[in-house]
Amino acid sequence: MHDIKAIRQNPEAFDAGLARRGLPGQSAALLKLDEDKRKAQTQLQELQSKKNALAKQIGMAKGKGEDASAVMEEAKQVGEQLTALEASLANNDAVTALLETIPNLPADDVPDGSDEHGNKEVRVVGTKPSFAFTPKLHDELGTALGLMDFDGAAKLSGARFVVLKGALARLERALANFMLDIHTQEFGYTEMVPPALVKDAAVYGTGQLPKFAEDLFKTENGFWLIPTAEVPLTNLHGDSIIEEEKLPIRMTAYTQCFRSEAGAAGKDTRGMIRQHQFSKVELVSITTPEQSAAEHERMTGAAEEILKRLGLHYRVMLLCTGDMGFCSQKTYDLEVWMPGQNAFREISSCSNCGAFQARRMKARSKAKGAKETQFVHTLNGSGLAIGRTMVAILENYQQADGSIQVPDALKPYMGGLEKIA
């Protein structure tokens, strides 16, 4: 969420940032609503003062034995006006309601663009594998091996689900353990096991509510299924003041994730690329504003290290203003080469959200000896999406006979298995 005080001070810069996102200016509407709100708050203070003054008059009149009925009637009317105005301000905060729908502003070094075609290639790592045969898609390979069951999953749950069996089920577990070991032992992330069900405040704090409710699954008793571990991990530090010397805080978690994919009709309907339920190892950092840019590069490097150890060809893309997520001020996408699809596909997004989420969550830090607090910066990234990593391994390590060579880095996690056949 944005700071209305900053918008008051520089409305032109705010509208210029929205224009880079391809959105119309909102400062005029916000400032008008803000002015109305402040007038109402001033009126509230005046009514409270009047109520207090009338209470004194009533007390003095009664003390002198005088008739206070007229003053009491006036005090009653003022009290009713005060109650109504308090309720109006509490239940109809039009400024906040509008701010909740406005995305974060892009960082200065984010390229302008309307969609993915405006993204900038930062670096390419490795080379495309060559095959003496036509490489197959991951779902063809997994189904032929008898280890990937889409029909069985559809019988249980419908479209966009899969049942993994045998060596592929173990491969999922191996990937999660491999990723967690790298992030905790080499990059200093603390492993967490958060809830997969959260309250409204948690999905609001990380920006999914109110605008993206249709992208989530909600239970009948009011809990939301997490779309990513970013939601519970980041919100652990909501409504708190963190001692600055304890920052950065780095957390990682392997969880199931749930997304309705409401806006993805017709996209990636085959295979495991876009599912309602998938597993992911998530990275979350909480930093000071001064640390966040360097932490963003570090987090992206941690996610890249997984791809390097697996020997996968990939590229790093800096997303343009029209392709970034709602909460992000700067995002790197890692795109891995998929031979069966003959294309790069996203396998991780690493985003710096600045103070945008922290302001919603009221997450602040305080330097030792300082009087004032400041909002922390929050960052999140996939380190990596397990299903898409499995897809990449199947397509890149496939053999002519349909078997899958196990990457060297995963063999210890697969009990020494050399090949999935």
Features:
421 residues, alpha+beta, Helix Hairpins, BirA Bifunctional Protein, domain 2, eight-stranded mixed beta sheet, three-stranded antiparallel beta sheet, 13 helices, elongated
Q: What is the CATH fold-level name of the largest domain?
A: BirA Bifunctional Protein, domain 2
Supply the CATH architecture of the largest domain: 2-Layer Sandwich
Strand elements, count: 18
- Structural class call reads alpha+beta
Mean pLDDT: 95
Q: What's the N-to-C terminus distance? A: 51 Å
Q: Give start-end ranges of low-pLDDT stretches.
A: none
Structure, briefly:
Helices cover 39% and strands 21% of the residues.
Topology (elements, then pairings):
Layout: H1 4-9, H2 11-20, H3 27-63, H4 69-91, H5 94-99, E1 120-125, H6 138-144, E2 148-149, H7 150-157, E3 163-164, H8 166-185, E4 190-192, E5 197-198, H9 200-205, E6 217-218, E7 224-225, H10 230-235, E8 240-243, E9 249-258, E10 277-287, H11 292-309, E11 314-318, E12 330-338, E13 343-352, H12 356-361, E14 363-366, E15 374-375, E16 377-385, H13 386-396, E17 404-405, E18 419-420
Parallel strand pairs: 4-9, 8-14
Antiparallel strand pairs: 1-11, 2-3, 5-7, 6-7, 9-10, 10-16, 11-12, 12-13, 13-16, 14-15, 17-18
Helix pairs in contact: 3-4, 6-13, 8-13
